[in-house]
Structures are given as C-alpha cells and as structure tokens.
Design goal:
Elements: H1 26-36, H2 45-58, E1 62-66, H3 69-79, E2 87-90, H4 97-104, E3 108-111, H5 123-129, E4 134-140, H6 149-158, E5 162-166, E6 174-175, E7 178-179, E8 186-190, E9 203-207, H7 210-220, E10 224-225, E11 242-243, H8 254-264, H9 267-285, E12 291-293, E13 300-301, E14 307-311, H10 320-329, H11 345-349, H12 358-366, E15 367-370, H13 378-395
Parallel strand pairs: 2-3, 2-4, 4-5, 5-8
Antiparallel strand pairs: 1-9, 6-7, 6-13, 8-9, 10-11, 12-14, 14-15
Helix pairs in contact: 1-8, 2-8, 3-4, 3-7, 9-13
The protein binds pyridoxal-5'-phosphate.
Pyridoxal-5'-phosphate binds near residues 68 and 94.
Length: about 400
C-alpha cells in the first residue's frame, strides 16, 4: 500500500521522477564501442575531432577538452595567472567547483551577490568586490541563462581582470545572437550526465587567445611539451620531452570524446525539447500567484539546464522544505541548486560568515529545481504541473 501524499489522496504518479537524466541512443553506444576496437583509448583522433567540433559549434578558435569541468576551471584559472594571494570573484549560487578553482591556485574566492530578477551575479556587486588583488572573475550562466557578459567584460577589461565564463549550464545558449563559448576570455563546459550533453565525465575550455590556449594545453598534461620551439634546451633525441610549467593529468579519454561527438549531434534536439518544457512550466505556473518563476532574460536564447521554482511565503502556509517533501510524496523528486557556497562548513572554517550575500541567501531559502531533461514525456511534464498545483491548492493561505 502506498502511503497517502502529504497534500492528501493518492500521489499524482506511482513511479519516481528525478530532476535530471541523460539520454543516449544506439549511435552513442556504437561510437564508444568503435573506439574500444581502435588503437587509441586516450590522446587519439577522437580528442582532436571533438575539439574541432566544439570550435565549430561555438565559433571559438581553440578548445581544450578535459576530464571534467572542475579540471577545466582549474586550468583556466592557472592560465589566467591566478596564484597565491590573488582574489577571484564569483557568485555564491553555483556549484562548489566555480569557487574551489580559486582555492586550488592558492587564491581567495570573493562572493558577489546576485541580481534578484535573473539570479545571476550582479555586475554592480561584482564591480564593488574588485580590489587590486582581483585576477579573474568566474561568471556563471546559472540555469543556462547567460550572465550579463557585456557589463562584466567591460568592467573586467577596464580593470585588467580575466573573465572565465562557467558555462556548465549553458551549452547551446546564444547571448545577443552569439553562441556561448565565443564571448568571454575563456569559457568552460561540463559534460556530466545531468547536463545537456554528456561524456560521462568531461569538460572543456574554449578561447580565442592563442597564448591562453598554449598554457591550457600544458596545464592539462603535466606541463610537458615535445615542441622544440617551447623548450629551454636543445632536444637530446627523438624521445625528448620537457616539463616547462606546472601541470596535471586532466585529459579526457577517446571513449568519452566519441560519446560526446555523437551527443553533440543531438544538441539542437535536446535544446528544443528543454525550451518546450520550460515554456510549458512557465505557462502553467504564471497562473499561480503563490509561485515565482524565473524571468526569461532579454537577449538570451537559452537552453536551460535547470528550472527554478520559488514559493511566495505570503501566499502559502508551507516553506520550501515542506513543499519539497510534499513533491517527493507525489513521487516528483526535486533538488535544490545551490546552497550558497560560503555557507559550507569548509568555507566557514576559512572565515566566511552568513549574511555575506543576502539576496543569494533569500533565493536559496525559497527555491527548488523541478525535473527538466530531454527524455521527459509530455505526461511526465503534466505530472509535475499537477503535483505543484495540488500542493498549492492544498496549502494556499
Ligand atoms: C556541474 C557544474 C560544475 C562541475 O562540473 P564537473 O564536470 O562535474 O566537474 C561546475 N560548475 C557548474 C556551474 C556546474 O553546474
């Protein structure tokens, strides 16, 4: 016997629906199998092919694929010259990696509050956070809507600060007609399975700057080169290599690259479906004053990774936690993206205090992420809407 839902009666569905899920077809599976039958499992032709494809997709000159976006953000910070004692500004409403990349370099993450309408980092708050130590900004396209890049780039370039766009959520999005990946000094992507396209684990850095590109290549692979023009001493023979900078092993495998090449063929289809679901949610929730939906940004043609629903505390007798639990009782498993980073125990140990970014903390208190992914059926989408309506009807003040 199923337990009754918190809002009463039987749950709107009897199987669980999660907030994200990958979609793979037979072509994806075959692409991976083909690599397994080939000579190269890593450092092979699929890496070059994928990097070329990412450049074509975004219009960027150079792409460096990595083991994941966390690695991509780390080498992007290194290439930007972030080091001991520097500061890196980012938003608190993002995944841990957007700030941790500064810590990896010995720098201090500085959090700038969000814009209440867009939920993205507010360029004015960012500008106020700039000090002579600011080396880079990690600007996050939260949910897939592009951060105010024009304003951010103008302020940063005036202050000699490198702009790294963390576009983990926004592959496929266009900002003022330009594809994400072609705008900031460096742009990073994530290909984790919950994101729009996946390679299992995977990431990339895109840039138009050749000097940054050379550095990214070194940092991705042990700081090692086999190019005589980069070496400090004469080659000692055909085997010779030099370590000329700091580096890690942040490489992607050819199996992952082949999977992503095949996934990218489906990006237009994935984008279209995500837009359709977002439009349907917006239409349904616009009729409910108990809820607040995220505004569609002007000038951003967005492929959304997340759909954020906020509850209006004046019009509902339950808080976010109760709403979240009530959704789970309807078998709709929501999530919350994200807990403001500086509230994490590790950051507290570093000296960060609650109250730093009040708008971000307020957003966190009242929001949750609804299921949003390509493979959702129309019925799944209607189930989510039915569950939200049922809970709102039950707890309306
Ligand atoms: C997912 C995500 C990351 C980390 O990506 P990985 O590929 O899992 O390392 C970084 N930033 C944001 C905003 C993300 O959503």
């Amino acid at each position: 016997m199923q337990k009754p839902a918190i809002a009463g009666g039987t749950p709107v569905r009897d199987t669980k629906l999660y907030y994200g899920h990958q979609y793979l077809d037979e072509a994806d599976v075959q692409a991976v199998v083909d690599v397994l039958h080939s000579d190269y499992l890593t450092c092979g032709p699929k890496i070059t092919e994928l990097e070329k494809k990412l450049c074509e997709l975004t219009g960027a000159k150079y792409a460096v694929v990595c083991s994941n976006d966390t690695a991509a953000l780390h080498i992007a910070c290194m290439a930007a010259g972030v080091s001991d004692g520097d500061e890196v500004i980012t938003t608190p409403i993002t995944f841990l990696a957007s700030a941790n990349c500064a810590l990896y370099c010995g720098a201090k993450p500085v959090f700038a509050d969000i814009d209440e309408k867009t939920y993205n980092m507010d360029p004015k708050a960012m500008e106020q956070a700039i000090t002579p130590k600011t080396k880079a900004v990690v600007a996050v396209d939260y949910t897939g809507q592009v951060v105010d890049l024009d304003a951010i780039m103008e302020i940063c370039h005036r202050n000699n600060i490198v702009v790294i766009e963390d576009a983990a959520h926004s592959i496929g999005t266009k900002y003022k007609g330009k594809p994400v990946g072609s705008i900031a000094d460096m742009t990073t992507f994530s290909f984790h399975p919950v994101k729009t396209v996946t390679s299992g684990e995977g990431g990339a850095v895109l840039t138009d700057n050749e000097e940054l590109y050379r550095k990214l290549l070194l940092h991705r692979s042990h700081g090692m080169t086999r190019e005589q023009s980069q070496m400090t001493r004469e080659s000692e023979g055909g085997w010779y290599y030099q370590m000329i900078d700091m580096g890690y092993n942040y490489r992607m495998t050819d199996m992952q690259a082949a999977l992503l090449i095949s996934q990218l063929d489906k990006l237009p289809m994935f984008s279209a479906r995500r837009k359709e679901i977002v439009a349907r949610y917006n239409e349904a929730f616009a009729q409910l004053p108990e809820l607040v939906v995220q505004e569609e940004l002007e000038g951003s043609d967005s492929t959304r990774h997340l759909y954020i629903l906020r509850i209006n505390p004046e019009k509902l007798s339950i808080d976010r936690r109760q709403f979240f639990d009530a959704m789970a009782a309807e078998n709709i498993m929501c999530n919350v993206h994200y807990i403001p980073i500086y509230l994490q125990p590790y950051y507290e140990k570093l000296g960060y205090k609650p109250g730093l970014c009040p708008k971000a903390e307020k957003l966190y208190q009242g929001m949750m992420s609804l299921p949003l992914y390509y493979a959702m059926s129309d019925q799944d989408v209607e189930d989510v809407i039915a569950a939200v309506r049922k809970i709102v009807d039950y707890y309306r003040r």
